[in-house]
Amino acid sequence: MKLNVFDDIVVPIHSRDGSPKVIGDTARLREVVLCPPSYLAPVPCCSVTREKLRDGFQTDTELAGRQHRVLQRALERFGVQCHVIPAAPDMPDLSFTRDVAATTPWGLVLLNPAMPHRSIEVEHFSAAIERISGVPARRITDGFIEGGDVCVARPGLLIVGVSGDRTDQRGADAFARLFREQSWEVITYRFDPHFLHLDTIFCMLDDATALACTDVLDNGFLDQLEDRGIKVIPVSYKEARRLGCNVVSIDGKTIFTSDREPRVAEALRQSGYRVETFDISEFSACGGGIHCLTMPLARG
Ligand SMILES: NC(=[NH2+])NCCC[C@H](N)C(=O)O
């Protein structure tokens, strides 16, 4: 299949079994890219890690490895094929595979992280993923964009977070062009860099429901969601800061979330979701949760 939305792409990434691409963030998750936390460390590049470093936190990479393996086994139990890329000593945040790339309905797109220690992840990721799939991916080089700010909310609707720090308007526009050219609606949401990425304060659960830090999200954005029939389950600022809003929807019905947020888990259950909880303490101390740890390669 030739991708016609970009002149500079030859072929989009095909997963081995020819599964569809990501048509929406809550369509059935089939394949995901993970990276073990062998060199995970808190880098003082976001508010959460700065606080943890101030409090003397140091990563226990063995514990992080165990937590990561439990997550991987659970994904596999739920029928998700996990592609594991190698860790690298100079890439302490590489386990947060979400930020390096985003899979669209038209194939994989390599992104352009703003942080220097994260921008070097792109080459590494790209080489590893080419070995998995055998085909090159498109790459955004205009502006900055990180995957935690990308929400392929549902077929026809893309939401991009723009804090100006990790994702700027140019990066958001370069990425959104692909969707706009296919007549998707694109909502750009501007927020303060304190919150790092959109997925720390907003994650879709199914086509019409999101987990959302209503304390923080501005009313204009909440109105835009409501106008599009998207209901929100509220999460507090403190819960979001502990990465309690950063969840993965396996299929629009089952949600993977942190075991440190019993109130959020209960609110999800009350709304009819099946909830699977995980100890991700080593990762949340480094500023990322389950959504950040998973880069969907195929959904739908
Ligand atoms: N999608 C996310 N929210 N990723 C979190 C990444 C955290 C990582 N320490 C960073 O600052 O880049």
UniProtKB/TrEMBL annotation:
Catalysis performed (reactions): L-arginine + H2O = L-citrulline + NH4(+)
EC number(s) given by UniProt: 3.5.3.6
Entry-linked Pfam families: DDAH_eukar
Listed pathway(s): Amino-acid degradation; L-arginine degradation via ADI pathway; carbamoyl phosphate from L-arginine: step 1/2
Gene3D superfamilies on file: L-arginine/glycine Amidinotransferase, Chain A
Group of enzyme by EC: hydrolase
Superkingdom of this protein's organism: Bacteria
Coiled-coil residue spans: none
The protein's name: arginine deiminase
Organism for this UniProt entry: Sphingomonas natans
